[in-house]
Specification:
alpha/beta, 2 domains, about 10% strand
Length: about 290
């Protein structure tokens, strides 16, 4: 596989070819990626509240640590989203695909870091709330648009299991959960996405359905105690007494030791790691016939 950093630089000289190769998909994308006002804002739960405190105080642009897309490419992608330039976003993805970058890597190495950069711009007051909200709508729409291509051709080698994914109480960051849902659906799992309107609604859901895995997302350490209480409540109410609890988000990436503090079983850094972990978890659940992992 070529060096995609240099390949992306060379690829900018052939933007015309990338647009031509993407013409058919773009025709469909204009409709799919249109932001439909209030409905879309509600569906994406407005703007993700991304890491504050120590990350907000950090000087300079966000560090993305992408292996395939250098920072300048990610910043350019964010700028296109802020400008509402859907065509530029899809053209940039089309160019990556021409360079044989997989949708999995596009999701994890471009979309996810771009969402993080966008959140940092809002936290540092370099982007307005409304601007960040609409840009995040673009990212959610891109995720939905490319979902059929991402999940096509998957080879299922294990049983399907019910997975519930939701933000922790008070958490509004939902883009990572939506992306994780795509990875788990690709593996054949039945995925339900939160949040629920009330704590009672969540309790009713886990009493009604036997979820194998329940995953919570949290970005800021100020929500740790609330999450611990939420997890304890879910365990008490769960129809599946052996349910496995996953937690993720920036706060757990930076402080994995908080796993035991909230009473969860597992954590992972990104959707790829979670998907692999769930594959292992469900095999253990099957072997133990639903026993506690």
């Amino acid at each position: 596989m070529p060096n995609h950093g240099s390949a992306m630089r060379a690829g900018r000289d052939s933007d015309a070819r990338s647009r031509e190769g993407f013409a058919d998909a773009k025709a469909e994308g204009d409709d799919v990626l249109h932001v439909s006002g209030v409905e879309t804002l509600l569906r994406t739960h407005v703007v993700p509240v991304v890491v504050r405190g120590h990350r907000a105080a950090r000087a300079g642009p966000a560090a993305t640590k992408s292996k395939l897309f250098p920072d300048r490419e990610i910043f350019r992608f964010v700028d296109h989203a802020v400008a509402g330039n859907t065509k530029a976003l899809t053209d940039q993805i089309a160019l990556a695909r021409q360079l044989d970058v997989s949708f999995e890597d596009i999701f994890l190495e471009l979309l996810q870091p771009a969402a993080r950069v966008l959140g940092d711009r809002w936290a540092s007051d370099t982007c307005l709330f409304a601007t960040v909200t609409l840009a995040m709508c673009q990212f959610h729409a891109l995720l939905r648009h490319y979902s059929p291509l991402f999940t096509s051709g998957a080879t299922l080698t294990h049983s399907s299991h019910r997975v519930l994914l939701l933000p922790a109480t008070g958490e509004q960051h939902t883009f990572g959960l939506a992306m994780l849902g795509e990875f788990l659906r690709r593996d054949g799992h039945e995925v339900t996405l939160g949040p629920f309107d009330t704590a009672r609604g969540l309790t009713a859901a886990v009493r009604r359905q036997a979820f194998s895995v329940i995953g919570f997302s949290l970005s800021c350490d100020t929500g740790i105690e609330r999450l611990a209480a939420q997890i304890a409540s879910v365990r008490r109410a769960s129809k599946n007494r052996g349910v496995s609890i996953l937690v993720g988000g920036q706060v757990f990436n930076e402080h994995p030791e908080l796993l035991s503090r909230v009473g969860a079983d597992w954590t992972a850094r990104d959707a790829r790691e979670v998907a692999a972990l769930v594959r292992g978890l469900v095999r253990t659940v099957d072997h133990n016939q639903g026993g506690r992992i």
